[in-house]
Amino acid sequence: MLGHLINNSIEAMPKQAGTIWVGTSTDSRGWVVVDLRDSGQGMEGETMVRAVEPFFSSKPGHLGVGLSIANGIWRRHRGTLSLRSQPGEGTAVRLCVEPYHP
User: Fold this and answer.
1) Under CATH, domain 2-97 is a member of which superfamily?
2) Domain boundaries in the chain?
3) For the whole prediction, is pTM greater than 0.85?
4) 48, 53, 58, 82: least CB-packed within 10 angstroms?
């Protein structure tokens, strides 16, 4: 799943040059948080609305399944996936999940 997200970040970079940052933390509920940010081209509002929709892609020749698969995997683990993006300013993906307690 992280591979899909990182590939999306790489593809969003002009000439595949830029910065990808991955960090982890816990939030106020004690949930595990994984943040992934890139310095790519970012997304327009209309693209953001449909970004996790299966088979939607703004990239010619792409199937549009990366974010959809990542979102589905994360939801199966009872987690949340949120996106923030601005054109020209990159995209941030935040994954939150309750820690596993056997």
Assistant:
1) Histidine kinase-like ATPase, C-terminal domain (3.30.565.10)
2) 2-97
3) no
4) 82
DSSP per-residue letters across 48-97: HHHTTSTT--SSTT--S-HHHHHHHHHHHTT-EEEEEEETTTEEEEEEEE
Name the residue among 22, 18, 24 with its Cα closest to residue 40: 18
List 94's β-bridge partners, or say none. Answer: 35, 82
Q: Judge whether 74 and 97 are in contact, CB under 8 Å.
A: yes
Distance CA 26, CA 7 (A): 25
pLDDT in tens, 76-96: 888 998 999 999 899 999 999
